[in-house]
Amino acid sequence: MVRKAVTLEEMLSARERRARIQEELLAKYGKPLVSFTMNIPGEYKYDALIEYAFRAGLQRLTEAAGEPAAQTVLAENTGCEAFMVFDAPAEELKAKAVEIEERAPFGRAYDIDIIGTDGAKLSRAVSRKCYVCGEPVFECSRSRAHGLDEIVAACRGLLERAAASELARRAVEALKAEARLTPKPGLVDSANSGAHSDMDLALLLKSADALEPYFKKAAELGLEFGRKAAGQEASAAKPEAALDIFARAGSALQQEGLKAEAAMFKATGGVNTHKGAVFSLGILCCAKAAELQGAGDCFGIASKIAAGTVKSTAATHGNLVAEKLGARGARQQAVDGFPLVNEALGVLRSGAGELDALLLLMSKAEDTNLLWRGGAEGLTYVREESKRIMAQPKEQRPELLKAMDKECIKRRLSPGGCADLLACAIFLK
Length: 429
Description:
- Helices cover 64% and strands 6% of the residues.
- It contains 17 helices and 4 strands.
- A 4-stranded antiparallel sheet has the order 2-3-1-4, with helices on both faces.
- Helix 15 (368-390) packs antiparallel against helix 16.
């Protein structure tokens, strides 16, 4: 995404449009209105990172105030805006808005106005803080304590730090959502431990929490290298330069991944709960952060990052199966740009459930965990049974999955690679 400086004419036009939309919604619904914009200094008001921060704010608003009675959302060169009608007291909405502005990771960049049914904005009891020094912003503005460039840089730094934290949180929540999903054939879920005798749901949740610092570091690396790649693209550098940048990101991420594995084993008492997710979800967390800097598409970036990792020669189950049966495994899926994650993401975004996405993955993935536990016969069983269940009416699938779970437990089959890919799709949803 190429950033474009906003003009004064565009800003004036946007202001007039905002006032018109507010008047129309108040007249139509006669209820308090939330007018949500981003407080972005400087000539650039819109890019992928700003929109990501804005969407996170929309989610916080609906979590705090519930679904709005009506909503209009705009994302244009003049910035991101949302107009939301709520059937709730204006004072209550204002308290929630201030809470978000003060405590949410991106909160300082939010400007959430509450407009009462009389058309008047509710005032804020506490002054906003300066991006640069943290003092009341009106004092810094009055004294002109900071130059515009310094304020713009401080705002961008806040957005990047908050994005790293938000991406890490979402990665952990994706792992937990996958773990809790029930019923999953042969996998740990809320009903049982599947084909695993050494782990349960509580251990998976503990492991996910232990990985949050790693995912934050992965996002920080993505933001750093994505900024460099976007800068080179803007300066018309050769495409191979960006490839080299992300190859270096892959190398750096791999070193962080080794530390993350150590943290995981420490949290789980030596049980391998999420080694595959450290690799796959770590790459996608890094790639998504780079995408927010305008460095390209997440899946394309992920491919370049994966290509920069050194293929492990350790005697892992995946490597042994790859050597014996020629399986492509998780690394090749990443180098290819996670095509199966992209397919599963399409299933989720279509409104289908996470179990449907899992069935798709189990019907297609060359899961090395299945190959290790059950050989080609075990892999074929899971693929064919998944296809059979997918062909059945949706309401019948949960019971069919329970029956498949019993058979997988009996055969000691666990599609752990598919579980990792599902977590990746949930993360990107």
